[in-house]
């Protein structure tokens, strides 16, 4: 720095802190940001509120240029609500090593003011780095950040510092200040130190850095209200998409903004696309029931590389709010990708997802993150939380890692992302209720439910023995295959009973038809016996002609009787002349009264 003559007034903020253990760092010119070759970094530039409306620049000592717009590998974003602007540099190479400055226009003399300067050092193995450059926690909760350093920095001073007020916390000291409790422990053997912040407050949100000696690495901390989701920016993420492909980006918002206008902002053409708009290669759809809107971009080409934002109109001050920002990187062979950007499973079931990465990201941190609450799960850790069990295993040889979620819940539905380093790929997970073939006997429950008992009781009146067998089977065997047979038996039982009833009816009708002729014959015999009078003497039958020829017989000694015979197939009209038989009975003379 001694060989460099500054042409601008350099701004140094000097603070005096009364809180025990909080130090003020008043010389930022000796700091060096170390970044891995091919990687990226986001640098925060805080400014005084009086410069909110003024132009801001990123000045490169290498190119001697001032820039305040976004390019393919550079994004400069102002955040007036936080009194800072961020500079994100991507795909960094050795040629980018050098000095850089954050500058604002003052509107007075001098016309420009340097608010921050740093030296950027690109290394294949950075002297200082962090496992994750973006962390989040809830109010009252805790966060941990792991900072790594090279062997030559083993004996250097290790610190955790805040950009906004330049306050620093040192290894081996437990400090409690307005920024919660901070504990820093050094692990010499692994060449890393861990920062732990407990009792988080909303005011702790902001930019920090891990430092060892004069080398540092930036970290962004987001603290949200307990139980309330945060939609603040993941400012250091890049979405990778294949050339000619498509991507869907979820934009979550607070429920209080349900009725407000939402839009997708492109830093490239400075255009706003409001929700419920569908164009040839762009769709912006609001889902108020889920408190999010989705942006789908299709047929992406190199010209679409750039910064994009999910924003909404608040109806208050400030009038607009950015919920999410990302850099879209179009590649013929994406550095990070997934086989399918949409997966689904049943409640209580499992899903697996394979995430691929290029060789340059082999040693980067692999994570499975949820957009809604920005919670992340890391490779080689098995986490059990409110979104079920998550297991992540890395296959270095295949350059992929697999995410497995077990014991799925309906609340697990939503948007996630595969993350490798600062690269991400969105994935939508849909969890549905399990399909059940029968409502009376749930397939997942081996023991009979109340509905099963009710159905069985109704069947018991018809076939008690069969029902008892079925109940015995259901209550003593919980194996899936046996249970399926029970279900089949219960379904077949009504059909068997109906068939049995039909057979019984046929038997009864047949029996009645066979008994009818016998009853008719019995009736004929009874009628004949009642019609013929008993006599003691032998009867002599004769035809009508004989009766006529025997007219000489005394009438007093003759008794006439008629015998009627019934025929089975007789009609209603009977030929009575043919059916009458005349007979004469000779009776022993008795005294007859006159």
CATH architecture of the domain at 230-334: Sandwich
The whole-angstrom Rg is: 49 Å
CATH class of the domain at 230-334: Mainly Beta
Give average pLDDT, whole number.
75
| Total of DSSP H or I helical runs spanning 4+ residues | 5
Structural class estimated from helices and strands: mainly beta
Task: Tell me the overall shape.
Answer: elongated
CATH topology of the domain at 230-334: Immunoglobulin-like
Q: CATH homologous superfamily of the domain at 230-334?
A: Immunoglobulins
Record field, number of beta strands: 41
Largest sheet: 11 strands, mixed
Strand content: 35-45%
Termini Cα gap: 175 Å
Q: How would you name the oligomeric state of the polypeptide chains in this document? A: single chain
Residue runs with pLDDT of under 50 for 5 or more positions: 1-27, 227-233, 383-387, 443-482, 527-553, 566-579
**Can you give the helix content as a percent range?**
10-25%
């Amino acid at each position: 720095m001694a060989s460099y003559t500054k042409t601008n007034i350099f701004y140094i903020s000097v603070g005096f802190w009364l809180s025990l253990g909080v130090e003020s760092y008043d010389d930022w010119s000796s700091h060096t940001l170390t970044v891995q070759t091919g990687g990226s970094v986001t640098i925060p530039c805080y400014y005084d509120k009086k410069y909110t409306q003024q132009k801001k620049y990123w000045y490169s000592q290498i190119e001697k240029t001032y820039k305040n717009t976004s390019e393919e590998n550079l994004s400069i974003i102002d955040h007036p609500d936080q009194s800072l602007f961020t500079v994100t540099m991507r795909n960094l190479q050795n040629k980018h090593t050098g000095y850089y400055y954050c500058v604002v226009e003052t509107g007075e003399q001098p016309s420009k003011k340097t608010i921050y300067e740093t030296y950027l050092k690109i290394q294949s193995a950075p002297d200082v780095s962090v496992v994750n450059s973006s962390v989040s926690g809830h109010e009252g909760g805790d966060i941990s950040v792991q900072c790594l350093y090279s062997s030559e920095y083993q004996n250097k001073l290790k610190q955790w510092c805040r950009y906004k007020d330049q306050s620093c916390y040192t290894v081996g000291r437990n400090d409690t200040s307005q920024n919660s409790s901070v504990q820093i422990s050094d692990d010499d053997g692994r060449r890393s130190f861990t920062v732990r912040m407990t009792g988080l407050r909303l005011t702790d949100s902001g930019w920090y850095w891990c430092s060892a000696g004069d080398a540092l690495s930036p970290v962004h901390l987001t603290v949200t209200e307990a139980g309330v989701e945060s939609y603040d920016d993941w400012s250091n993420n890049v979405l990778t998409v294949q050339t000619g492909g498509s991507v869907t980006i979820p934009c979550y918002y607070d429920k209080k903004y349900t009725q407000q206008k939402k839009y997708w902002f492109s830093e490239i053409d400075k255009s706003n696309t409001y929700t419920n708009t569908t164009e040839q290669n762009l769709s912006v759809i609001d889902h108020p029931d889920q408190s999010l809107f989705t942006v789908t971009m299709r047929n992406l080409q190199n010209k679409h590389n750039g910064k994009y934002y999910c924003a909404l109109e608040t109806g208050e001050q400030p009038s607009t709010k950015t919920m999410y920002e990302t850099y879209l990187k179009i590649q013929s062979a994406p550095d990070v990708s997934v086989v399918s950007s949409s997966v689904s499973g049943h409640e209580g079931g499992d899903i697996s997802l394979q995430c691929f990465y290029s060789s340059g990201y082999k040693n980067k941190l692999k994570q499975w993150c949820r957009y809604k609450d920005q919670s992340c799960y890391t490779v080689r850790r098995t986490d059990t939380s409110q979104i079920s069990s998550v297991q992540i295993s890395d296959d270095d040889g295949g350059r992929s890692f697999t995410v497995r979620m077990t014991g799925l819940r309906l609340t697990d539905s939503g948007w996630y992302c595969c993350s490798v380093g600062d690269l991400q790929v969105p994935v939508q997970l849909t969890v549905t209720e399990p399909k059940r073939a029968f409502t009376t006997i749930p397939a997942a429950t081996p023991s009979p439910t109340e509905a099963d008992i009710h159905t069985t009781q109704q069947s018991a009146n018809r076939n008690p023995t069969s029902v008892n067998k079925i109940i015995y089977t259901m209550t003593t065997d919980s194996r899936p295959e046996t249970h399926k047979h029970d279900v089949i038996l219960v379904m077949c039982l009504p059909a068997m009973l109906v068939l049995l009833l039909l057979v019984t009816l046929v038997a009864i009708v047949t029996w009645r038809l066979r008994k009818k002729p016998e009853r008719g014959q019995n009736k004929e015999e009874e009628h004949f016996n009642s019609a013929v009078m008993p006599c003691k003497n032998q009867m002599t039958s004769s035809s009508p002609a004989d009766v006529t020829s025997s007219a000489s017989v005394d009438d007093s000694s003759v008794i006439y009787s008629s015998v009627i015979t019934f025929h089975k197939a007789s009609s209603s009209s009977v030929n009575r002349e043919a059916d009458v038989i005349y007979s004469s009975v000779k009776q022993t003379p008795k005294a007859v009264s006159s």
